[in-house]
Amino acid sequence: MDYGISVWLDLPFADAVQRVRAALTEEGFGILTEIDIGATLKAKLGEEIEDYLILGACNPQLAYRALGVDRRIGLLLPCNVVVRSAAGGTVVEAMDPELMVQISDQTALTPVTDEAAARLRSALDALHE
Q1: pLDDT value of residue 129
Q2: Beta partners for 55?
Q3: Do residues 36 and 53 make contact, with C-beta atoms less than 8 angstroms apart?
Q4: What is the reported pTM?
Q5: In sequence order, which residues have a C-beta less than 8 Å from that of residue 79 and are 6 or more positions away?
Q6: Dihedral of CA 95/101/102/103: which sign?
Q7: On the CB side of 91, how many CA atoms lie within 13 Å of its CA?
Q8: Of 3, 30, 58, 81, which is least surrounded by CB within 10 A?
Q9: From start to end of the chain, where are the E strands?
Q10: What angle do CA 114, 16, 96 make, to 5 degrees?
Q11: SS3 for 76?
Q12: Nearest CA to 55 among 82, 89, 15?
């Protein structure tokens, strides 16, 4: 099962993170959470990995609509967007919101997840511009 939308950027990690934030904002997403996995693993386990950041992106209107269909859908919110260093560039991956329909079996969520997926795809596509 493919559960993500991804793009590879020929950019350093820090530059990619800035572009991802801007692209998400353009599509109506705010960043609710930010988890620096590399720093966390270093601090808690003494282990080192590549730059790896998880951004918890949320579009309030879409979240409200999804919660109106199924209050438990909050378990799958916000949409996670991963930015990580790889092979001399940066990979940006977003959870495919359409998984919410598959996991919850709530077909009434389809219009919301379709719009969220379209907005996330648009944000990731904009990273190449």
Answers
A1: 73
A2: 34, 81
A3: yes
A4: 0.92
A5: 29, 56, 57, 58, 94, 95, 97, 116, 120
A6: positive
A7: 13
A8: 3
A9: 4-9, 30-36, 52-58, 79-86, 89-95
A10: 20
A11: helix
A12: 82
Dihedral pair phi/psi, residue 8, rounded to 5°: -110, 135
Contacts of 75 (CB under 8 A, 6+ apart): none
Tokens 């998984």 map to which residue? 99
Are 4 and 96 in contact by the 8 Å Cβ rule? The answer is yes
CATH superfamily assigned to domain 4-126:
TT1751-like domain (3.30.310.70)
Write out pLDDT tens, residues 49-92: 999 999 999 999 999 999 999 999 999 998 899 999 998 899 99
Task: Show Cβ contacts of residue 78 under 8 Å, excluding neighbours closer than 6 positions.
Answer: 32, 33, 56, 57, 58, 63
Q: What is the DSSP letter of 10?
A: S
Q: Please give the average per-residue pLDDT across 13-28, as a whole number.
A: 97
Rounded to whole angstroms, how far apart are CA atoms 17 and 84?
A: 9
